[in-house]
Design brief:
Layout (H helix, E strand, L loop, with lengths): L1 H20 L4 E4 L14 H11 L3 E4 L15 E8 L5 E8 L5 E4 L3 E3 L4 H17 L45 E3 L7 E5 L3 E5 L5 E6 L6 E6 L2 E8 L2 E8 L2 E7 L1 E2 L1
């Protein structure tokens, strides 16, 4: 039943979104897919880049320097390869998403019955790429300015993190206002879609923070180094909030979604 659904989704995606793929000139490749244990295991990232370039895309690994013309993260697509559980058969399919994690294209399932992992993954991925080939991709010439940015909600409530203990207060005088950090970094962070939400990267690119989806699109569980907190939107700005020595810290984060 799941397989039939994916096939149906493939045809719908091909019909409705194939033209949208042509609006993007380049694709960003993560260094590890969720079903793999290490970066570029079985050289699947290398194979992904080879196939994308073969079919006309410019392709870049997420950890390599990207040309300035693609500095707007919404001007590129983000590829992911996912594995479908199956007995005695390796099944993989490809998704191409935009900067808002919206699926622009999803491939047909690539299959292989080889027992050897490396060979089965390689053949299944190549099989899935046949759907990409069938798109007859050709860049339409659109620029990043043609892609509108999604609005950020004007104000949202702060979502508390489980297991965070708020200090008990007895009088109004003892209530501490959140300490606002005015440390404005010169480096704008870019939100790169992941399976769990986003990873915020700087211009190197280096992962600065990982944020995890919640039921509220303007509030994320967040981890920055060893510090855990929340990333929330308030008055069209993003704040990383966490507790330090029983003091609520609210740190403004310059991030582009």
């Amino acid at each position: 039943m799941k397989t039939r659904f994916l096939f149906l989704l493939f045809f719908i995606s091909s019909y409705g979104f194939s033209q949208s793929v042509n609006d993007y000139k380049a694709v960003i490749i993560p260094m590890k897919y969720d079903f793999l244990k290490t970066d570029n295991q079985y050289r699947l990232q290398t194979l992904t880049k080879f196939n994308l370039q073969k079919y006309g895309f410019q392709a870049f690994y997420s950890n390599e320097s990207i040309p300035k013309e693609f500095s707007d993260r919404c001007s590129v697509l983000y590829i992911d390869v996912q594995k479908e559980n199956a007995f005695l058969t390796t099944k993989l399919f490809i998704t191409l998403k935009d900067c808002y994690n919206k699926i622009i294209f999803q491939s047909e399932i690539g299959k292989c019955r080889e027992k050897e992992y490396e060979k089965s993954y390689v053949e299944a991925l190549n099989d899935a790429f046949q759907s990409v080939y069938a798109l007859n991709y050709k860049y339409s010439g659109k620029t990043s300015t043609d892609i509108k940015s999604a609005p950020v909600p004007e104000s949202v409530p702060v979502v508390a993190i489980p297991a965070v203990v708020v200090p008990v207060v007895t009088t109004k005088k003892e209530i501490n206002e959140p300490k606002i950090s005015e440390n404005k970094s010169a480096n704008l962070l870019y939100a790169q879609p992941t399976s769990y939400g986003y990873q915020l990267i700087d211009s190197e690119p280096k992962v600065i923070m990982k944020v995890y989806k919640t039921s509220n699109p303007a509030s994320f569980m967040a981890i920055k180094g060893s510090v855990q907190g929340v990333l929330v939107a308030k008055e069209n700005k993003w704040f990383f909030e966490y507790y330090q020595n029983d003091q609520l810290i609210s740190e403004k984060i310059d991030v582009k979604f």
